[in-house]
Amino acid sequence: MTISAETANGERFALARAALSQVPHPVAIISAAADGDRSCATGTAMYVSLAPAQVVVALFPGSHTAKLIERSGEFSVSVLTRAQQPVAAAAGRSAPSGQDKFAAFGIPVLEPPAGAAAPAVADSLAVLWCRVVQRIPTGDHVLHVGEVVAHRADATKVDALLRFRRRYLRVGDWTSDESPEGYPV
Ligand SMILES: Cc1cc2nc3c(=O)[nH]c(=O)nc-3n(C[C@H](O)[C@H](O)[C@H](O)COP(=O)(O)O)c2cc1C
After folding, report:
1. What is the structure's pLDDT at 2?
2. What is the reported pTM?
3. Ligand 1 atom at minimum distance from 88 CA
4. How far apart are CA 41 and CA 93, in angstroms?
């Protein structure tokens, strides 16, 4: 029996499709730059420490963006809005070899602030610029733990883009007052 690449991948990722897709994740663009080269990849991020403020991103080690993070020790996380769904679709593909993904797919660039190197995506809900403090290989990904060194947010935007059940979904309405439990985030 011949097993097509698609069938083999389907079986390999069956548990991810069935179980991991049930966890809603914010859709983010992870960006990095090194030695005049830059790229970005659709992914997600979660916070892993409050003080110091740290987030983690998980990337396939073969991704161009992951290699740039390895070289520069920095990355940015651009948290997307519903209106930026086309950016998520674009950055989820590899750019033609040797091409700048931002230029190739028309992804609008937000230049880094002083002291940071990674570009980010303009018009995002929020951007965190991070310095890598830990690199942890796990399973088929590498975790890059980043300490937040700069950030910006657009408080007028609430429609964060989520990934859930292999679809995109947008965040809707506030359902409480700000931090009623006192938790810092
Ligand atoms: C919704 C979505 C979420 C993704 N999440 C991740 C992720 O967390 N880690 C990862 O390595 N790739 C993730 N990808 C795939 C990468 O974005 C994709 O492999 C990309 O082409 C990598 O680009 P690069 O090689 O230029 O870095 C995701 C793609 C989509 C569409």
Report:
1. 45
2. 0.95
3. 31
4. 8
Which residues does a 6 A CB cutoff place in the pocket of ligand 1? 27, 39, 41-44, 58-60, 63-65, 88, 91-94, 101, 163
Task: Say if 105 falls within a structural domain.
Answer: yes
Number of domains in the chain: 1
State the DSSP code for 4: P
Q: What is the CATH number of the domain that holds 152?
A: 2.30.110.10
From 63, 135, 167, give the residue whose CB has the most ligand 1 atoms within 8 Å, as the site to mutate: 63
> Which residue matches tokens 């091409």?
99
Asked whether the predicted pLDDT for residue 46 surpasses 80, the reply is: yes
Quote the domain boundaries for residue 125. Answer: 24-170
- Tell me whether residue 4 is in a domain: no
CA–CA dist 81, 98 (Å, integer): 29
Q: Cα of 89 to ligand 1 centre, how many Å? A: 10
Residue 152 covered by a domain: yes
